[in-house]
Structures are given as C-alpha cells and as structure tokens.
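Researcher: We are triaging several targets before committing to wet-lab work. For this one, the compound of interest is nicotinamide-adenine-dinucleotide. I'm pasting the protein sequence and the ligand SMILES. What I need is the predicted three-dimensional arrangement of the protein with the ligand bound, expressed as structure tokens, so it can go straight into our comparison scripts without reformatting.
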Amino acid sequence: MTKPLKGLLIGCGFFARNQLHAWSETAGAEIVAVCDRDAERARSYAAEFSIPAWHDTAEILSSGAFDFVDICTTMETHEELVALAVRHRVPVIVQKPFAPDIDTCRRIVANAAEAKVPVMVHENFRFQKIFQRIRGILDSGEIGDVTFGRLSWRNAIDVYSNQPYLLQTKRFIIMDVGIHMLDLARFLFGDAGDVSCFAQSVKEGLAGEDAATILLRHHNHATSIVDVSYASHRFPNPFPQTLGEIEGRFGTIQILEGEVLQVHSDGQQRREIIQNDSRSWTSSPWTQIQDSVPRTQQHFIDTLRHGGDFETSAEDSLKTYALAEAAYRSAETGRVVDARTL
Ligand SMILES: NC(=O)c1ccc[n+]([C@@H]2O[C@H](COP(=O)([O-])OP(=O)(O)OC[C@H]3O[C@@H](n4cnc5c(N)ncnc54)[C@H](O)[C@@H]3O)[C@@H](O)[C@H]2O)c1
C-alpha cells in the first residue's frame, strides 16, 4: 500500500474543526501538523485530534516535511500563505472565499501556474449529496437542457457568533455564501457572463451587505437567479439548505426543504429524499455542510495522487470569482456587468 500524503493544516479556527474531522476520514492522507499564529489554538487542536506536531508560523512549510497544505484562514491571508506554499512547492487546498477581489485571485493563480504547483479552492457545496444527485439527474438527460434555475439561501442563522469577523467584512454575503451559490450555478447550469445584482444591508451596524439578489445569463442561454440573505426570519430556520428549482426543456427539479427533490418529468412527479452519510462528528444544524467536507478533501487527494484537474481548481474558480466581482460592480453601478470583461 502506498504511504498516505502528509499534510499541514494552517488556521485552527471555527471551520478547521470540520476539516480535521474530515481529514481523519480521507483515504490516502493524514494531517501530521497544525499551525496557527495563535499558539494556544494550534496546541489545543493538535491535542484534540492527536496530531503529532503544532507550529505558530507557516514558515514551517519550508521544512520539506509536507506533501500538501490545507489553508483554513480567512481570505485576506490567502495570497501570502499560498505564495509561501508555492515557493516551497507544496500543493494547496485553500478555503473559500479564495481572495477579496478578482485581481488578487488572478495574482495567486498566475504565481502558482508559473511554478506548476497545484492549487484547489475548498468549495464544498457542490460536494453536498443533494447537488451531486442533481448533477446526476441533469447528466441523465431526464429533464433536458436547462433553461432556468434558481438557487436560494435565505435564513437568519446567527453567523456572527461563530464568525465575528463577518460583522466587519465589507464584501460580506456575496463572498461568504454567494460564492457557494455562484459555484453551484456554474456546476448545474453552466458558465455565465452577464450579471446584474441588487445588494442590501438589512441588519444594522454591518460593514457589508447581508442580502443580495443576482441575475445571471449563462452562455447556453439559460437564465438563473441566485438570492442570498442572512436576514430572513423563517420558522423552522431552513439553514443550511439551499432551495430552488431547475427547469429543463422536458421537466423540472424542485429543491425543497428537508433535503427533498421533487422531479417532474414525462408527465409524472416523484420525490427523492437525499440522506447525508452518517458520521459520528456531524451535528444539526450543520450536518449537510459538514457531510460535504470529506468528499471535497477526498477529491483533492485523489486528484493529487492520480492526476487530472481539480473540479474547483484555482484557475477554474477565477470564473466563479469573476461572477462575484461582476455582482459587486453591478450593485455599485446599477448596470449589467459582463464578467468576461473584468
Ligand atoms: N466552506 C464552508 O462551508 C465554510 C464555512 C465556514 C467558514 N468557511 C471559511 O473558512 C475560512 C476560515 O474561517 P473561520 O471562521 O474558521 O475563521 P477563524 O477566524 O475562526 O479561524 C482562522 C484562524 O486562522 C489563524 N490565522 C490567520 N492567519 C494566519 C497565518 N498567517 N498563519 C497562521 N494562522 C493564521 C487565526 O489565528 C485563526 O485561528 C474562511 O475563509 C471562511 O469563509 C467556510
């Protein structure tokens, strides 16, 4: 049997806990050290997850001890940390949002491409079981070519307790959860160009927007609506479900609460309930998101080992981040912005 790839995880904060659980289930890889500039955080995650070593500086990447690095810090740190990994030729998986703006994303991609160091963006929503199943239905041709889609994330989850930095983030919900929806829109409906967007700041005292309505025109002439809000009071709270519908030339898929798909085709309808895998460490309400993390990381490791392209390679993700950039520029100017011109 080949030896597992040895990884370093940088950023022992809120979401890293899910990634460390997920790494313990990822075949062909093991995390051999964690790092946080806050030494106490690194030490405590190393103890909790029985990881042999911890460090308080990412410079440890120069040691030659790592086959990959998992960067789970917030976006403003990614350019510097990915550049450090690239300098030491260590393949990277880096959390979304990739970077605060499209120019920074492009600099990161160009630097890694020049050194031929593989970089994948940790974009886990497309690895949720429900979206893998929808992709399967679309690929089967059952509803025909997509003509319209809507992806809707509306809830009032208190994101601010676990991620207090979001209160001060100027580019907030479009970068935080909108980016997941824009990746899903590309995954399910195809690449898009024209973008228009209205953004709102509903909760008082935020630095950025906590709601946005985005309209996309896809290259295949499908249109889609992506709407996101952290200010939608619904009982029970639908977090973290992405709801919506997908219309094709012959049928429709509705994405309903309770992780239910209602598929209309051939003059009939059927319901499918999509169950998450059962894992000891997942818990409500986060289960659906947590469950997607091992699949995301397994894809990264399998691609590193066997070759091929990451589904959400840094380079491919430029198309997703161009849509987000276009959404911000549209919200600022009130105009339709073609993401291909940015
Ligand atoms: N994919 C998802 O479903 C999902 C869900 C939640 C958060 N996230 C993303 O995960 C990322 C991390 O979010 P979080 O809430 O865990 O953040 P966090 O602030 O809780 O944790 C980040 C950690 O990184 C450390 N850090 C920052 N810069 C560092 C550096 N240069 N070297 C070493 N350590 C450094 C900080 O000390 C902190 O402990 C964000 O980009 C966020 O958007 C993704």
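Researcher: Any quick observations?
Model: The chain is about 35% helix and 25% strand.
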